[in-house]
Amino acid sequence: MTVQHGSEKSIGEMTVLVTGASRGIGAQIALRFASVGMNVVIHYLKSHEAANEVARQCMEMGAKVHTISADLRSSAEIERMKERLEAYGLRPDILVNNAGISHYGLLSDVKESEWDEVMDVNLKSVFLLSQAFMPYMISQRFGRIINVSSIWGISGGSCEVVYSAAKGGVNAFTKALAKEVAPSGVTVNAVAPGAVKTDMMERFDAEELKQLEEDIPVGRLATPEEISSLVYFLALPESSYITGQIISPNGGWVT
Known about the structure:
The chain is an alpha/beta fold. It has a single domain, classed as Rossmann fold (3-Layer(aba) Sandwich). The protein is built from 8 helices and 7 strands.
């Protein structure tokens, strides 16, 4: 039996847009796609030098790379980003919504402006970017939207109510949009990591990190490379039967 994957392109011929790709998980995702020679678009907000360094590493792997800055809270800026990419002849086959910010603190102390900021960056951006780039995917009857969520969007986290709510919204968005675009050959999935060894963990001291690792059955934090491998797998043409899923690589922490 022949499995229909929907795309006439190989993975190496595709274009991927990774948001928030100047550091951490986003940078590693960009590098993973670069390793197969893809067109890689590295989005960043202000970290120009860091984004250029990721781009340099991607180019060393033989990838064709573009860096682009945009405020993802703004539909106008996303439209400008889209127009700039189209001017280069680039239309993303794969969209990785990775950009996000964390928030830690008691709900009673949260300001309305902080709530709005976390929701805009973590959730609204996913809506705006998907809306902007999925028409091309639908028109070619192939596309991948992969949202980087969080374990807290599944289980909730004490003192992370705002962040948990935003990532829970990402998960619900993922499930609903997957059903909407499935007939068009577009898959939508979310990767919801547990604790990952990135600068987001800097608020923990050595003792807190040790306790955290002891709470995780595999006994350690994830690496960004482990998360990027899952994102890459979901982007493959042969992953066409996986959609609407919230996959949580968390070392057995939450099952």
